[in-house]
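Handout, section 4.2: multi-component inputs.
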Amino acid sequence: MFQLRTPKSGRSSARSLATWYRSGGLSSVIFAVPLVLTFLYFSWGPIVRGLVLSFQKNNLVAPPEWVGMANFSYVLTDPQLPQAALNTLYFCLLALIFGFPVPLFLAVFISELRKTGWLYNVISYLPAVVPPVAAILLWKFFYDPSGVGVFNSILGWFGLGPFAWLNSQSLAMPAIVLEATWAGAGATSIIYLAALTGVRTELYEAAELDGAGIWKRVWHVTLPQIRGIILIMMLLQLIGTFQVFTEPFLFTGGGPNNATTTILLLIYRYAFINGDFGAATALSVLLAGVLCVLSVVYHLLTRRWSTT
Amino acid sequence: MSHERGIISTADRKRSVVQYGLPAIQVLLFIGVLIAGVGPLLWLLKSGLSTSQDILRGPMQLWPSGIQWQNIPDAWNRVQIGSYLGNTAIIAIGSMISTLFVCTTGAFVLSVLRPKWGPIITGAVLATLFLPGVISLVPLYMTILKMPLLGVNLQNTFWAVWLPQAAGAFNILVMKRYFDAIPRELIEAARIDGAGNLRLFTSLVLPLSKPIVGVVALLTVIGSWKDYLWPLLVLPDPRLQPISVALPRVAETTEISLQMSALFLAVLIPVVLFLVFQKQFLRGVGMSGGIKE
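Output:
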């Protein structure tokens, strides 16, 4: 009875165009315009342009010229690169060792507290609310190397220090990681807490009957059930820390003696201090390539444990 | 009575190690969290009301030369914290609007209208999720300096911050996933009732998606509030800069007491907002984890 479908035999293109229009084809296009335009301008376009730029010499003044692999060889032979790569890896490692377990431990603990859990939650999330730049400036003052600096005077009560903190080549990076952990732990632990609400509690009963102690229950029952989110958060943290910029930039500017120069700081210097956009994009492309390989390897390595 | 149990059982709680150990750990951890979470903020409040000399000579002493209430209005007027905070709000709200506009309309096409070319767009959006942001930093900056085809320079306009924010794959896919869960029968019913696509979008899909719209809005505001490098690059004009870009510059030129009261004012607003809306905040941030999975 109903003529739901318009005749398929579109003899003329005008007819099929009319059909397309009547079935809402035009409004689909109109609805898609914002997405397609913003992505063309600010996502797909820049990605393609980045790949192109890395093979060009470009300083925004002279017209760009093709230089082949020259940018890559320049970047790879830059004597600053090994140091920056090592610093970045060092930052990632420290953040993984110190920054990763803290929120996880916090979340497991908070999830055990039924009545007062929210209070821990709110307080531990507070640092995440402080704008990162304000937090860094505040901590920079805390790290004052003189004997009356905030941290040094607190440690002085226990007879320790004074430490040079950001002025010391060996302490600068751990100091930055400490601040980053402080700033990030609350937000991450909220995400774990949300995942922990989905843990099936019957299993605790079974584990307890089998004689598993509290720590064994955490290790064998709780953590395996949220391993999916743990693995993802670890990968996201790795990708994030490889691209760390704001903390070293504002804390030390890469010093002392380049002890905290990261890859992104190097990219920033190439582009916005030297005006060498080709070298900057070449290094960006290399870093992005490394991160893609890292993600794939990570995925393959952890496939055994992942939930899906 | 159904009682949710946790890792620690009632039998455990009777063991003396747990009976005394658990409260001890609780108290210790609470002190730790309190020092880490509230300590720096209280210190900032104290220092914001101190003289520069007091801050430098005795950072852990309570107001040896009295409380300096004058610091707060000084920071507001002389450092112009007010106008930087205003810029921050303009940037955050504009980013939120542009993000919501792009991701709701985009997700509506990909999830509800489902044109033939939809999967291609979905794939292209998804692909950008796997590429780290660093790859487009420099070319994005050059795009802002001279928009391709249009030839416009967006530097020193708020558009330079608002628009790129909207091209986030994560938000689009989250929104699309939420729209996918709307029963098709509802949409078909609205169609039979004669609703056009625009009507379908504004009167059915959007009202049904309030929770996810709220989460995306919140995460966008938090994200743009925290952003530093991008506004630093595209807003070199101090009159347009948000607080996070302005603070490090201000820190170099102002005395330490005003610096601390400026920092205090910059921290105060998000902290108060958080404490007022803590439930929504924590739920929204928690949901973002579920989405990532």
